[in-house]
Design a protein that fits this description.
Order of helices and strands: EHEEHEHHEHEEHEEEHEEHEHHHH
Largest sheet: 7 strands, parallel
CATH topology of the largest domain: Rossmann fold
Number of helices: 12
């Protein structure tokens, strides 16, 4: 197949590109390098079945020729992080909603066979049910969650009205090599690994008993591929480990001293995905344990040597908008 991956130089996208190439597919990457990095694709950029195009997903004219002959579209491009979305909601709506609309329209015009969308489990907000199924109420707590959910609604609509074969994957807490090290405070692995490499204590938000469904990035890439290979359409599916791990457990695995920062409002105490739907419909199952994934990160800890290093004062300043707007 010929696959187009938006955001293919990013954290998840680069792993997906590697997997697609290893399976013999042709890969076309579109990325404006806002959060993606050329270093993420340096091992595949010389592959004869790979091409990279520095383009924004809002550039419809520039994008259009790249859809010629494309069979699968994986739409992973977009703006991430909660705090910037609160401070600059217009940018998030333009990119995460308008950009998704552009890619959908071009996919329909090119008559692509499959469209797979990277949705977000943040749409569940603070859920009532654990594990959380896809039928749980949507409670978007901030502009990032809202714009990702609006993109998902567009994808479902394009499937229903225009017959585009789509799947939306609601990703839980993805971790692994190449996870982002830039942007506002929030990505726990990047924060902790940078602190560890600099000999600083871990800044644990709250008491550390809050837990998350951490899912390893290579398992997520497999979920995208399995979804593209399936015959299902118009479906929304959770992608997680189906288990939950506390921040204290992460600190224990990383090893180091801890200091505590105030708990952020609007965050759930726990997240855990009900993954029975994707297991049933695609036969996908996660294969990397949390402990195995953390061990890989520790082996590659030098990758975080240039990452921002946070202390409690920096965190307080960086998250001021979070407390101002969400503490209600």
């Amino acid at each position: 197949m010929k696959a187009l991956v938006t955001g293919g130089a990013g954290f998840i996208g680069s792993h997906l590109c590697e997997l697609l190439l290893s399976e013999g597919h042709e890969v076309v990457v579109v990325d404006n390098l806002t959060s993606g990095r050329l270093e993420n694709i340096e091992e595949i950029v010389q592959n004869s079945h790979f091409s990279f195009h520095k383009l924004d997903i809002l550039d419809e004219k520039g994008l259009k020729p790249l859809f010629n002959g494309v069979d699968w579209v994986f739409h992973l491009a977009g703006l991430a992080d909660v705090i910037p979305s609160i401070e600059e909601p217009h940018r998030y709506f333009a990119t995460n909603v308008g950009g998704a609309l552009n890619v959908l329209r071009l996919s329909k015009e090119a008559d692509v066979k499959r469209f797979i969308y990277a949705a977000s489990s943040s749409c569940y907000g603070i859920p009532d049910e654990f594990p959380t199924p896809e039928t749980a109420p949507v409670r978007n707590q901030h502009p990032y969650a809202l714009t990702k959910y609006m993109g998902e609604e567009l994808v479902t609509h394009w499937s229903m009205i225009y017959g585009l074969s789509t799947v939306s994957l609601r990703l839980f807490n993805v971790f692994g090599p190449r996870s982002r090290t830039t942007g506002a405070y929030g990505a726990v692995f990047g924060v902790f690994l940078a602190q560890k490499i600099n000999g600083l204590p871990f800044t644990v938000v709250g008491d550390g008993n809050q837990s998350r469904d951490f899912i390893y990035v290579k398992d997520v890439a497999e979920a995208f591929l399995k979804s593209a290979q399936s015959n299902i359409s118009g479906e929304i599916m959770n992608v997680g480990s189906g288990r939950t791990y506390s921040v204290n457990r992460l600190v224990e695995l990383l090893g180091g001293e801890v200091i505590y920062a105030p708990k952020r409002p609007g965050e759930p105490d726990s997240t855990v995905a009900d993954i029975s739907k994707i297991e049933k419909l695609t036969d996908w199952r996660p294969s990397t344990s949390f402990e195995e994934g953390v061990a890989v990160l520790l082996e590659k800890i030098d990758d975080w040597r240039d990452a921002p290093v946070w202390d409690t004062g920096g965190i307080e300043k960086a998250t001021s908008s979070w407390f101002r707007y969400l503490a209600r």
